[in-house]
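TL;DR need structure tokens for one chain.
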Amino acid sequence: MSVRVGEQVPAVLADVEVFDTDGTTSRLGERWAEGPAALVFLRHFACLACTEHVTLLALRLHELTRLGVRVVYVGNGEPRYIEAFVERNAIDTAAVEVITDPTLAAHRALELHRSFMETYGPRALWGLGRALVGGFRQRGIEGDNYQQGGLVVVDAQQQVAYVHRDQATGDHAPLVDVIEAVMRVAAQGSPVV
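>> reply
TL;DR here they are.
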């Protein structure tokens, strides 16, 4: 099973059970059931590279939401980590939803990378160094330390419009690519969420 651009989102991904900050469960697919969504998969909630990514996305968040795309951060730590993540990153939960999948089922369904070398290898060290120089700091480990992130955009027809699988820590989806994918989704006449 593979998640590919232009194909329907597989049921195995849509059916993953996720948790909100209160520990309430829901299906991941509920995020795109009513319209397009951009799901940002985090390494873990305290990751400095993820904090860097959240900060970069915040610069373009108004564009994404104005184009009618629901933005969702998907962590993999325990639900109790969500509140501190939201606070540390000054996330406006009216504009962005934060959920978690501690089982990593969604990460596996998207075939996101997970290994020691992708976390601490040369490419990862470059990403970690860039984030450190940018002033971002590691806040411990709040989830699976070896899990890499990614980003997927799902359109209103529940098809994959864009997918990026981080190759190493700090390898974020290029914002220009994400915005272009969202603009293509918006041009399809997707309803505003």
